[in-house]
Amino acid sequence: MPEKTAHDFDQELLILFDAYVHGAIDRRTFLDKAAKYAVGGVTAAMLLEQLSPKFAAAQLVSLDDRRIAQEYVEFDSPAGYGKGRGYLVRPTGASGPQPGVLVIHENRGLNPHIEDIARRLALVDFVAFAPDALFPLGGYPGDEDRARTLFRDLDQTKTRQDFIAAAGFLRALPECTGRIGAVGFCYGGGMVNFLATRLGSDLSAGVAFYGSAPNLEEVPNIKAPLLIQSAEVDERINASWPAYEEALNAAEVTYERYLYPGTQHGFNNNTTPRYDAGAATLAWERTIAFLNRYVRG
Question: In Å, how far from its chain's centre is CA 18?
């Protein structure tokens, strides 16, 4: 887990880091602006290092855990980039097919943290499939800065089609019951909201962690129950919630929304100081209960 928490950093620095993570500013601009918070022998570069992901230390499920089977598989996406690739994890001790969960990453592609999320889902008897949107550009490069840069080069029209194809691929797997949910974080949370408008009843449930709202005109197309997990200190995302909530209510969509007090955008990601253990634990418990109710049920 991170050695520091969000409380160890000035809130304005956290907002600055959020802008950097989401591509609003580049690394040099972050370092220049972060310099004012670098005191007591700490440099701006050191602050960036402290705020950046620590994947190995945060891993919860080992790669050699015998309770799961894992592999990278490709799938067809004729309306997208043609071919997609993702990380497939399934429980080894399950008797018969299990419900599936599409796991959708942030704006850096399929990094080790999202793969760990997929393994966590397999341990509670879901077939988890985590596509890598960066596969058409060579896949997640192993470096968050490089991944963020590559992400901007994606044709999002094709990428959205790749995720639609990935959902269909998961539903059709013999290991899957044919019922699927979707869980996404940040960019992935927005993708969950988008998929809900496109997949109709083919999606049994969606869980969006601090994700952007979909096109509001398409909200009436949503058939899946939604669980919206929101950070309190997340103005960029939360600004769209009132209009989204109004559209959900007008369309009579089943949804639950939780706002976690004192949390930052990314509070579920245990690789960075923005992680909030209490909120993340509760949000994950709610996620699994929601998936069990609507996807397994």
Answer: 15
Give the CA dihedral 45, 49, 51, 52, nearest 10 degrees.
130
Per residue, the 3-state secondary structure of the chain, as one string, reads: CCCCCHHHCCHHHHHHHHHHHCCCCCHHHHHHHHHHHCCCCCCHHHHHHHHCCCHHHHCCCCCCCCCEEEEEEEEEECCCCEEEEEEEEEECCCCCCEEEEEEECCCCCCCHHHHHHHHHHHHCCCEEEEECCCHHHCCCCCCHHHHHHHHCCCCHHHHHHHHHHHHHHHHHCCCEEEEEEEEEECHHHHHHHHHHHHHHHHCCEEEEECCCCCCHHHHHHCCCCEEEEEEEECHHHHCCHHHHHHHHHHCCCCEEEEEEEEEECCCCCCCCCCCCHHHHHHHHHHHHHHHHHHHHC
What does the pLDDT average to over 103-112? 97
Instruction: State the Cα–Cα distance between residues 58 and 217, nearest whole angstrom.
Output: 39
Spatial neighbors of 281 by CB under 8 A, at least 6 apart, are none
Residue 170 in this model has a pLDDT that exceeds 80 = yes
Q: What is the pLDDT of residue 42?
A: 86
Least confidently predicted of 26-35, 114-123, 152-161, 284-293: 26-35
Instruction: Say how far apart CA 214 and CA 200 lie, in whole Å.
Output: 14
**What is the average pLDDT score of the chain?**
95
**Residue 251: partners with Cβ closer than 8 Å, 6 or more residues away:** 219, 220, 222
Q: How confident is the model at residue 263 (pLDDT cuts 50, 70, 90)?
A: very high
Residues 177-212 pLDDT 10s:
999 999 999 999 999 999 999 999 999 999 999 999
Query: Of 181, 196, 163, 21, which Cα lies nearest the Cα of 106?
Result: 21
